[in-house]
């Protein structure tokens, strides 16, 4: 949430590492370097396989660069709400 507004509007509720449902978050994490440093994919490829991502690097990447201009010019309240489970 950015200033009590959901951002980005992508829902990550379907992410489930136990059931192998993490392709969206894996793709976001793998593309982070490309987006952040503005490099070509073959230069910034992190070489993290989906299995390595699941077991070693389960990171979430939230790209907040495309928010409204109103949020960019003021102090922003950031809230991250997450639910975790163990099986």
Q: What low-confidence regions span 5 or more consecutive residues with pLDDT below 50?
A: none
* Beta-strand percentage range: under 5%
Specify the overall morphology: flat
Structurally, the number of domains stands at 1
Helix content: 25-40%
Multimeric organization: single chain
Compute the number of strand runs. 0
- Overall pLDDT score: 78
Structural class by SSE content: mainly alpha
Characterize the biggest β-sheet.
none
How would you describe the overall organization of this protein?
With 87 residues, this protein is an all-alpha fold. The chain has one domain (1-87). The protein is 32% helix and 0% strand. It has 5 helices and no strands. It has helices spanning 23-30, 32-37, 41-44, 50-55, 69-72. The longest helix has 8 residues, at 23-30. The chain is flat and about 40 Å long. The two termini are 28 Å apart. The mean pLDDT is 78.
């Amino acid at each position: 949430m950015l200033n009590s507004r959901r951002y980005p509007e992508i829902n990550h509720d379907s992410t489930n590492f136990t059931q192998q449902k993490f392709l969206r978050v894996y793709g976001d994490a793998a593309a982070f370097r490309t987006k952040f440093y503005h490099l070509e994919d073959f230069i910034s490829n992190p070489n993290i396989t989906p299995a390595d991502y699941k077991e070693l690097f389960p990171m979430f990447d939230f790209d907040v660069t495309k928010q409204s201009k109103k949020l960019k010019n003021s102090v922003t309240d950031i809230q991250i709400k997450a639910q975790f489970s163990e099986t």
